[in-house]
Amino acid sequence: MKSVPQISLEEAVALVKDGDILLQGGFGMTGNPVHLMHALAETGTKNLTFIGNNVGEVGIGGGRLLRNGQIRKMIGSFFTSNPEAVKAAQDGEVEYELLPQGTLAEAIRAGGAGIGGFYTPTAAGTELAKGRETKLIQGREQVFVEGIRGNVAFIRAWRADTAGNLSYRMTEQNFNRAMATAADLVIAEVEEIVPVGEIAPEHVHTPGSYVDYLVQATLTLEDLGSSASVESSRKVSERRMNMAKRALKELKRGDVVNLGIGIPTLVADLITPEDGIVMHTENGMLGVGPSPKDGGGAMDYPVNAGKIPVTALPGSSYFDSADSFAMIRGRHVDIAVMGGLEVDEQANLANWAVPGQPLLGVGGAMDLASGAKTLIITMTHTNKDGSPKVVPTCALPLTALKAVDMIITDLAVFRFIEGQLTLTELMPGASLEEVRAKTSAKFKEALEA
């Protein structure tokens, strides 16, 4: 059995050269090799191409490299969480490429498996498909994406043995597992290094054959940034709760359900373990339970896609981001409930970008919108200026084509029945006249008695 060298942070970051492609594991600051990133920020290494789900937080993790001007280009799915990354991109200081979260994970897995690329229905017909080859496969337009490999991968695991076998903690697999396969040089930052044999073979998530060096570094609450504690506040109103309650009625015992950010998050607060609904979160967990009540944070619990600590119900499982999105694209998620900015008469969805606003991230929205068996959109019926969100044709950048099955607003419930937008219910306090006045899309009326 080989022995993988254990080196210092300084020795590890010296292996990164100017101009390298650097893969960085983590989802937010969960499973993030933050000590390696901070050590690299102390060097003069520059012109890096950074590949990760996001560039850390402001001044933390990859955010420190960005602030130093060490990153030439960033490739990821959600940079909005770091305002400095958004500004650097919009000011032209850093090149960037946005990929849907599942596409990013699969591209890394493909690169690690020696596969040149793959076709995916995710992002077909959207701005992120522009310039890419497309092909009609099994009746669906699909987009070609090349596999991704790097010169160096920084990953974070919980335990390693001296042979380099790695075991991850709860939702810390995320991008780490795939990235461990997809670089010429893989450096694993770990909490603990144990003698070979102390990690049972069935508990090894990344075999030691992928790992070149180990660095031991202990996490603190400060290292986790905003992932450290339970969410302190949540925007709740009677109208928003009415939408959440109505969405809950669509969920049945045994359904595998993914809830997006915003109003859909409120649905999670209404679900009890007795409901038998299996909650899925795209960063790698099935069987999500409610937020912890003991005040514990991300050092003690898994986190969901909103980077909020959650509990694990009996029967829960953890996996990496590539497997998570394989579940979504493979239509193993029954229902996705997402927020929306616009839905049109053709069941097209726009919910990820507003021109002129500081947004730079699509996350998992495109994968979920095109991959879930049923897509429910919850949103206010109008914008703050009174303009409608249920429209003839989406004016905002599209998330998915012909994907929406149901719309729940604060005024009404619509379904697409035989391809036609149909009003089926009025929400509490709403009138038919108000819905007609505030909806610019044409719709059929089939109100339930």
UniProtKB/TrEMBL annotation:
Pfam families: CoA_trans
Gene3D superfamilies referenced in this protein's UniProt entry, alphabetically: Glutaconate Coenzyme A-transferase
SMART domains: CoA_trans
Gene Ontology terms for molecular function: CoA-transferase activity
Ranges in coiled-coil conformation: none
Residues annotated as catalytic: 282
Keywords: Transferase
Record bears the keyword ATP-binding: no
Keyword Disulfide bond: no
UniProt-listed GO biological process terms: ketone body catabolic process
Superkingdom in the source lineage: Bacteria
Similarity field: Belongs to the 3-oxoacid CoA-transferase family.
UniProt name for this protein: 3-oxoacid CoA-transferase
Organism: Pontibacter indicus
